[in-house]
Every structure is written in structure tokens, then in C-alpha cells.
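Key result, reporting period 2: structure in, sequence out.
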């Protein structure tokens, strides 16, 4: 088998675009099954990324990737649950993950650290990883994507190319493949923007809530306060794009709204800002197609939902875990590719929609907590196996029951006498 100047084979089983949580999880799990996988990642890790508050669904995906002990040893802040100043009456309420799931905690992380650990794990399991490699375009043959072209920073070769049986787009909101082969549907009720920064010398919530994420609603938006170090917090404000446009400077808005908070202000009473402001347009969206001939989408490249429930990294890693099983089977049984990827897309979309629809209802701050719990039950537990409160916790943990996304059964698609063949 020939290799390119980086020691990577010219033909692979799978090429993954992007080495974030989705790409690293998918590539690591496929490499562990002895698949020849390449991650092409535009940046050199560690690189900054937002998305610092994790939920138990992520822990589930990390068990599969063999990361549980390493995450524990890394000393990330353990997140036991959430404290909310949310809904009618502005009365604080909260929950612990252990009340509704087998998990005592998830983590708050600096994403630069977490994402490097996951990319290293993919490498360790046998995935080829090429950093500072930016995917530029796709190679097509007879209507099928059969490879990608990419540049490498500092390389004298203007454009490299690699052939593969499947290309998986895990490029996050860049949506490299989705931009060409899918159409984005924006969710009109969740056209928001976020502005955030970091503070040192912060106070903590009291007692058992010490490591909770604090979510505090205001009349025109909400704040997050996430403890990511002993006294350091990530603090962000989310509001509608229309509201931001009508109010001028987002930084001025952040400062003015911070003064209107009760608990966030209290945590920051002796704090000093420890960095500049960052902003993101966090409009929620779903691609109209999650797969096509020779390709599939995963993580933010497929769909993104507002950060109100901190679900992004969990959706990305759970979907990557499910997709790894499907891709592994499809490589041996290419004849079931379309049906198998359709099953992946349907399951992923249902799981995603459950969370998205719930977040849409949760945004209505005129209701009380019992209303939100009931909404969670109607969506995620229509058979009422659990109490509404427990279902809310399961949903907010990324582990709700109605449409689970860990493993998708496709063995029934394989005909007993079908030939076994790998394309690459
Ligand atoms: C304001 C805000 C707050 C958030 N808060 C949370 C939170 O608290 N908890 C949570 O779980 N989630 C949160 N999220 C969501 C979270 O950031 C994402 O859901 C998560 O990072 C998705 O992971 P991913 O692997 O799909 O994509 P990413 O993490 O974005 O990784 C994609 C990778 O692809 C690479 N790439 C892009 N283009 C190319 C290319 N052409 N070639 C090669 N590589 C490429 C990028 O460099 C990147 O490393 C938040 C999002 C926003 C906007």
C-alpha cells in the first residue's frame, strides 16, 4: 500500500473531517475495530473551543472510548448537577444527575485540554491524525464521494488527496461536507447569540451545589456560570439575535444584564475578569440530510442546538459512538450502506429533536418547574415509567429513554447469504 509524505496510506477505510469530540470519538472507536482511519484536523491541538459544561451522556460515550479513568485522573471539576434561577417567581431550584441516572457527576472542562485528550486517544487506538490539514473539497466518482482534497500548513504540495470508502464530516459548525451536499434548516425559535468571558476569584455556590452549573434567566436572555477551576468561572450571556441587534454593543449588554442578575452577580462580587470577550452566533439548525453516497455527518456538522442544556458535546460523542458501529458493519456489507445510514439518521434526528423541542419549551420563562418536568415527560417518557422530575433529569443528562442513541441495531439488514466485502 502506498503512503503520502506524512506516512498515511493513500487509500483508507474512513476519512474523518475534524478532530473535535465527534471526530476523535468516531475515529478512535473505528481504529479499535482495526479500521484504517484518518482524521484531518485544520488546527494544531490544543486549540480553544467553547462548550465547557458536560452531562452524563458524555460519560456514557467515554466509557465506550475507555476514557473514564483518565478523565477522573485529569482532575477536571466534577459537575454534580444544575442550579437554576429559571421560570415564574424566580425561585432557585436544582437537580443532581444521580437522582435520575447512574452517574454521580459529569465534568466542567477546558475544551483545549479535553479535546487534546480525546484526539490523543484516537491516535493511541490506531487512527492516523494529521493536524493543520484543512479539507478543501471532495472527490466524486459516479455520484459517490470517494475521497477528499486537503492542504497542509507549511507543505510545498499545494493540494493533497486521499481515497476512502466513506467520508465522515465531523467539522463542527464549519459543516464542510454539509455545505456542499445538504441544506441547513435554521430553527427560527432559537436564533440566539452568545457572549462570554472568564473571571478569577469567583465565589462558589454553597454546599452540595458547589460544582453545579448555574443557569440564571432574565427577561431577555440568560446567563451561564460554569466553574472550570478552583476560583475561575466561564460566564456567558445568551439572548436573541434581534435583541442583540436592537441593543448595540454585546459587551455593554453583558455588563448591564450582569448587574440585573441575583446569583451570578453574587458569585462574581469579588471577581476580576481574566480574558477578553468572545461571541458566537448560536442559531440552532439541522441539516436536511445526514448522509449520502459515500458520506455521513456527525456532531455539529449534522445539527446544533442552543446551549441551554449543555447538550452539544454529548450529542456529538453519543452520535459518533452509534455511527462507529454502523460504519464498521457497512464496511463489511456495503450493500446495506443506504439503509443502515438511514437508520442512523432517523435515530439521531429523533434524539436531537426531543432535546431541541424541549429546549424550545424550556425557553418560556413564564412557567414553573413542574411545567418543565411535565413537558419532559410528555416528550421523553410518554408511557410514564418515571416521575416527571426524573424524566427531566434524564433529558437534561442526555440519557432520556424515548429515543436512545448509544447503539443502533442494523444486523437485521444483512441478508444471510450476502457477500462480505470491504471497499478499500
Ligand atoms: C455559546 C456556546 C456554548 C456552548 N456550551 C456548551 C456546553 O456548555 N456544553 C456542551 O456540551 N456543548 C456546548 N456547546 C456546543 C459545543 O461547543 C459543540 O456542540 C461541540 O463542540 C461539537 O463537537 P464537534 O466535534 O461536532 O465539533 P467541534 O468541536 O467544533 O470540532 C470540529 C473540528 O473540525 C475542525 N475543522 C473545521 N473545518 C475543518 C476543515 N475544513 N478541515 C479539517 N478540520 C476542520 C475544527 O478545527 C474543529 O477542531 C456550546 C456552543 C456554543 C456556541
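The corresponding designed sequence is given below.
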Amino acid at each position: 500500500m502506498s503512503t503520502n509524505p506524512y506516512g498515511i496510506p493513500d487509500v483508507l477505510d474512513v476519512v474523518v473531517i475534524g478532530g473535535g469530540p465527534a471526530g476523535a470519538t468516531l475515529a478512535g472507536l473505528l481504529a479499535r475495530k482495526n479500521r484504517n482511519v484518518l482524521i484531518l484536523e485544520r488546527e494544531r491541538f490544543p486549540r480553544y473551543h467553547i462548550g465547557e459544561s458536560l452531562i452524563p451522556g458524555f460519560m456514557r460515550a467515554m466509557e465506550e472510548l475507555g476514557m473514564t479513568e483518565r478523565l477522573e485522573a485529569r482532575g477536571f471539576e466534577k459537575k454534580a448537577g444544575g442550579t437554576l434561577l429559571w421560570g415564574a417567581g424566580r425561585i432557585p431550584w436544582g437537580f443532581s444527575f444521580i437522582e435520575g441516572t447512574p452517574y454521580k457527576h459529569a465534568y466542567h472542562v477546558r475544551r483545549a485540554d479535553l479535546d487534546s485528550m480525546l484526539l490523543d486517544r484516537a491516535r493511541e487506538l490506531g487512527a492516523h491524525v494529521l493536524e493543520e490539514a484543512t479539507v478543501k473539497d471532495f472527490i466524486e466518482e459516479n455520484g459517490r464521494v470517494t475521497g477528499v482534497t486537503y492542504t497542509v500548513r507549511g507543505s510545498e504540495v499545494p493540494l493533497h488527496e486521499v481515497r476512502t470508502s466513506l467520508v465522515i464530516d465531523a467539522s463542527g459548525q464549519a459543516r464542510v461536507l454539509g455545505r456542499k451536499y445538504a441544506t441547513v434548516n435554521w430553527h427560527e425559535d432559537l436564533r440566539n447569540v452568545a457572549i462570554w468571558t472568564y473571571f478569577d476569584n469567583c465565589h462558589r455556590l454553597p454546599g452540595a451545589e458547589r460544582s453545579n452549573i448555574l443557569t440564571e434567566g432574565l427577561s431577555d436572555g440568560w446567563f451561564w456560570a460554569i466553574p472550570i477551576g478552583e476560583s475561575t468561572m466561564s460566564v456567558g450571556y445568551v439572548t436573541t439575535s434581534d435583541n442583540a441587534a436592537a441593543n448595540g454593543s454585546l459587551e455593554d449588554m453583558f455588563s448591564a444584564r450582569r448587574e440585573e442578575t441575583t446569583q451570578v452577580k453574587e458569585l462574581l462580587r469579588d471577581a476580576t475578569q481574566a480574558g477578553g470577550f468572545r461571541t458566537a452566533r448560536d442559531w440552532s439548525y439541522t441539516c436536511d440530510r445526514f448522509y449520502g453516497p459515500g458520506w455521513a455527518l456527525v456532531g455539529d456538522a449534522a445539527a446544533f442546538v442552543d446551549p441551554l442544556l449543555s447538550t452539544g458535546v454529548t450529542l456529538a460523542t453519543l452520535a459518533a459512538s452509534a455511527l462507529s458501529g454502523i460504519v464498521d458493519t457497512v464496511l463489511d456489507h456495503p450493500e446495506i450502506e443506504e439503509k443502515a445510514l438511514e437508520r442512523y439518521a432517523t435515530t439521531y434526528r429523533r434524539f436531537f429533536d426531543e432535546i431541541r423541542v424541549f429546549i424550545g419549551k424550556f425557553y418560556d420563562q413564564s412557567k414553573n418547574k413542574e411545567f418543565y418536568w411535565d413537558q419532559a415527560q410528555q416528550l421523553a417518557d410518554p408511557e410514564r415509567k418515571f416521575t416527571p422530575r426524573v424524566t427531566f433529569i434524564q433529558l437534561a443528562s442526555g440519557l432520556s429513554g424515548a429515543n436512545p442513541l448509544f447503539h443502533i441495531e442494523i444486523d437485521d439488514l444483512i441478508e444471510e447469504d450476502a457477500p462480505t466485502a470491504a471497499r478499500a
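The radius of gyration is 22 Å. The chain is about 30% helix and 25% strand. This case is discussed further under Risks and Mitigation.
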